[in-house]
């Protein structure tokens, strides 16, 4: 399937980009900076407004006393040619190859991820394994005729037993809502083209690894100093070429006159306001926040729909440990209900350059929460103690070896696909789409759980659309086969094939926060 086949027969009309025009971009994450980078190459004057003191968004690399760590691990793996090209163009020799090892911790045991038949059978036990196979067989013979929610979708492909063991507990820990309230389209987007049968065949080496199954890869590329290095270097290149990246400056108002955005009123850390006029405006800010910022205020039903969009928040507790080689994994999914932690990263196993002191390890304990709840509002000292206690209980690190720690909070990390979100989003779109010089991009900008490479692609498409192409931005990452053969129309009307653009043919991922086991992407996977 090609991108052209995904597109709407009635493409959205957008303003044409002319050389020297000013494009104002809200957000300094992967989507925002990619948009600025591409528009600058097309001859635009660009200004990026970033509300914090860090670029990269959820793909930033935080620092603490010289230690660098991800806000969720982010693999760099894609089959989208222009994305791969930009990574290599910006990072150059700072790309390294990293062997992948990830496991699931469940019921006191570790399971290889993706699934390996012998490991799974020995860990689950013979009788439970038989029950899983029988449950799967039943789902194939008598599938649920309705696939409206996550539970129904996964059960039809993996069986009720495996769903309950590996999918349900972790998914509800990530999202904070029952699986019956999560839309099936989220599962279809994140657990692409997989079933238990395919996973077992792969695990048993009975068939050649399919290049169409995204999650089954053993190695990935990674910036030497973490994913934030990509976006720090992108920022620097934009500035070197005459662009402006304004930090600690939040967009407060989008001034709309005669159906077009004329300017953005932004506020810096001191509370001072500054107005940014332009011809084109690109938004990667959360859709709910964008609706709130529109001036004049939209009709009440549009405001209500914007307010109905929900987000899951996230924090990481980075622990500095006085030991090396603590465990071999890059990351571990914690499916146990006895602890709050959802995933654990070992940053030594991502890149040694991220750990400045020999003999030490930096471990990231990741907690999914809602902004304002008990976890989010807990003092840093309490969160560090909780993380020390839980990693000790899991048997991974003796808490006496932990010398230091810090906490980083990330609001609105994941857009929630609840039962009402699609109606809310569609209503907001009907109001925003006619604004021909306003473009929504990225994970939060589109309220779509995109990987890093997908977010970048939406921005590239926006830039190409402004030069005459007609891509449907909303179609990115919505279909099972969407990026098995990526072909993207350039402004000249040519197509670029992304086939073979990735250095490994097995799969196509861009981050590594993963939600479901058995070779499916676990909720929270940040590629």
List keywords for this structure.
alpha/beta; seven-stranded mixed sheet; five-stranded parallel sheet; globular; disordered N terminus
Can you tell me about this structure?
There is one protein chain. The protein is built from 17 helices and 22 strands. With 527 residues, the protein is an alpha/beta fold. Strands 7-6-16-17-18-15-19 form a seven-stranded mixed sheet, sandwiched between helices. Strands 9-2-1-13-20 form a five-stranded parallel sheet. Helix 5 crosses helix 6. The radius of gyration is 22 Å and the shape is globular.
User: Any idea what the shape is?
Assistant: globular
Largest sheet: 7 strands, mixed
**Residue runs with pLDDT of under 50 for 5 or more positions:** 1-9, 205-216, 479-486, 496-520
Mean pLDDT: 86
Topology:
Elements: H1 3-6, E1 22-26, H2 30-41, E2 45-49, E3 61-64, E4 67-70, H3 81-91, E5 95-99, E6 102-106, E7 109-113, H4 117-124, H5 126-141, H6 150-158, H7 160-175, H8 184-190, H9 196-203, E8 219-223, H10 227-240, E9 244-246, E10 249-257, E11 260-268, E12 273-277, E13 280-283, H11 287-293, E14 294-295, H12 300-308, E15 311-321, E16 331-334, E17 343-346, E18 361-369, H13 374-377, H14 380-393, E19 402-415, H15 421-432, E20 438-440, H16 442-446, H17 452-465, E21 487-489, E22 495-497
């Amino acid at each position: 399937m090609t991108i052209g086949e995904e597109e709407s027969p009635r493409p959205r009309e957008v303003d044409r980009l002319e050389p020297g025009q000013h494009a104002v971009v809200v957000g300094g994450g992967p989507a925002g900076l990619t948009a600025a980078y591409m528009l600058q190459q097309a001859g635009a004057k660009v200004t990026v407004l970033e509300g914090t003191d860090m670029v990269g968004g959820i793909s930033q690399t935080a620092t603490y006393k010289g230690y660098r760590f991800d806000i969720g691990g982010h693999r760099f793996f894609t089959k989208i040619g222009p994305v791969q090209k930009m990574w290599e163009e910006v990072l150059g020799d700072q790309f390294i190859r990293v062997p992948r090892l990830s496991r699931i911790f469940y019921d006191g045991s570790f399971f290889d991820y993706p699934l390996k038949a012998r490991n799974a059978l020995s860990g689950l036990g013979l009788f439970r394994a038989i029950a899983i196979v029988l449950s799967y067989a039943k789902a194939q013979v008598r599938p649920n005729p309705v696939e409206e929610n996550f539970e129904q979708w996964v059960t039809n492909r993996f069986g009720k037993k495996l769903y309950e063991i590996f999918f349900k507990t972790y998914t509800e820990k990530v999202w904070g809502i029952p699986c019956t309230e999560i839309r099936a389209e989220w599962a279809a987007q994140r657990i692409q083209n997989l079933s238990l049968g395919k996973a077992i065949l792969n695990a048993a080496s009975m068939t050649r690894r399919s290049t169409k199954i995204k999650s089954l890869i053993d190695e990935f590329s990674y910036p030497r100093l973490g994913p934030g290095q990509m976006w720090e270097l992108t920022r620097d290149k934009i500035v070197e070429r005459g662009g402006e990246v304004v930090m600690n400056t939040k967009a407060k108002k989008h001034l709309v006159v005669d159906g077009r955005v004329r300017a953005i009123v932004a506020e810096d850390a001191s509370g001072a306001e500054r107005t940014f006029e332009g011809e084109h405006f690109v938004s990667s800010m959360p859709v709910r926040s964008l609706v709130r910022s529109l001036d004049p205020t939209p009709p009440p039903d549009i405001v209500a729909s914007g307010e109905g969009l929900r987000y899951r928040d996230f924090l990481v507790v980075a622990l500095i440990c006085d030991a090396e080689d603590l465990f071999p994994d890059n990351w571990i999914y914690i499916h146990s209900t006895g602890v709050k932690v959802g995933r654990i990263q070992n940053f030594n196993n991502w890149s040694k350059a991220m750990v400045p002191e020999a003999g030490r390890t930096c471990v990231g304990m990741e907690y999914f929460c809602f902004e304002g709840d008990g976890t989010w509002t807990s003092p840093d000292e309490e969160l560090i103690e909780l993380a020390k206690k839980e990693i000790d209980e899991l048997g991974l690190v003796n808490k006496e070896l932990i010398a230091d720690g810090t906490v980083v909070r990330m609001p609105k990390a994941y857009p929630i696909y609840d039962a009402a979100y699609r109606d809310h989003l569609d209503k907001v779109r009907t109001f925003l789409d006619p604004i021909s010089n306003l473009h929504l991009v990225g994970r939060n900008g589109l309220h779509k759980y995109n990987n890093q490479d997908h977010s970048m692609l939406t921005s590239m498409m926006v830039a190409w659309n402004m030069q005459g192409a007609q891509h449907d931005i909303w179609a990115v990452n919505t279909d099972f086969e969407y990026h098995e053969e990526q072909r993207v129309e350039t402004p000249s009307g040519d197509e670029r094939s992304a086939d073979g653009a990735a250095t490994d043919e097995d799969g196509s991922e861009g981050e590594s926060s993963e939600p479901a086991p058995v070779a499916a992407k676990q909720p929270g996977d940040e590629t």
